[in-house]
Amino acid sequence: MTEWPIRDLARATGLTSRTLRHYEQIGLLLPSRVASNGYRFYGDAEISRLYRILSLRALELPLATIRLALDDQASLADAIETHLALLEERRDRTTQQIAVVRETLDTVRKGRSMSIEDVFAGFEQGQYETEVRTRWGDEAWERTAERRADMTDAQREADDKKSLDVNAALRAAAEDGEDPNGSCFQDLVGDHHRWVTAYWGGREPDREAYTGLSELYVVDPRFAATYGGENNAEIIREAMRIWILANLE
User: Fold this and answer.
1) How many CA atoms lie within 13 A of 178 on its CB side?
2) What is the model's pLDDT at position 225?
3) pTM for this prediction
4) Helical segments of the chain, H only
5) Which of 29, 59, 100, 113 could make an S-S bridge to 23, C-beta 3.0–4.6 Å?
């Protein structure tokens, strides 16, 4: 039987050894054997299981749900076939999303009025998974995903509306020339911080995390676009910095 050490598996998948050990701790992916020196090795069955894990994780499913979905023993060919079907489904969804964004762009260029829901209709909730996992760890993302998975459709709709409302209010304040240090803007940032806490599954962002989030809004054009461009994002970042100094230790 061919075996691969954990470092090779990490390099091939882009996962860290720490993440693979975390999968082992929660019973999601066990090594085929552990050598006397503690080195982990993975065989064909583990490679097939990891392939399925990654294909399901790409759909933003929480690890607890993935573990339940892996109770049956599928071959690598079965896993790849399922992955292909999921990718085709995502392709179709992306095609639909492109059509929505094109329609939004056409509406904006023609100067037609739009609701705030229509403006952000081309975005998906899970688009920033990589940033969350990289900056704040897998646990932060899993907690967020599990929170969404536990909601009813009505609760998700209300949650989406809250997200739109919070971010639209910040954008409007920046566009209206509100003073970042003023009570109006500061109240909006406080509401945003509470929203982030809820969105992160109850994990309140500390000074470092919230400062990092404010920086991300400026440097990542996808985030800046949510607020109407980099200039608005910079104003919001300044308001967040003022709020952080006054409220977070």
Assistant:
1) 22
2) 74
3) 0.49
4) 6-13, 17-25, 44-57, 63-69, 76-109, 116-119, 129-136, 138-149, 153-175, 183-199, 207-219, 221-226, 230-247
5) 29
SS3 201: coil
CB under 8 Å to 155, separation ≥6 — which residues? Answer: none
Computed over its alpha carbons, how large is the radius of gyration of the chain?
Answer: 21
The pLDDT of residue 157 is 78
Q: Check: CB of residue 147 under 8 Å from CB of residue 62.
A: no
Longest dimension (CA), the chain: 69
Question: Could you count the other beta carbons within 10 Å of the beta carbon of residue 38?
Answer: 7
* Distance, CA of 221 to chain centre: 16
Cα–Cα distance for residue pair 81/71, rounded to 1 Å? 17
List pLDDT tens digits, range 130-189: 556 655 566 666 666 677 767 787 787 787 788 888 888 999 999 999 999 999 999 999
Q: Which two three-digit tokens encode residue 138?
A: 């897998």
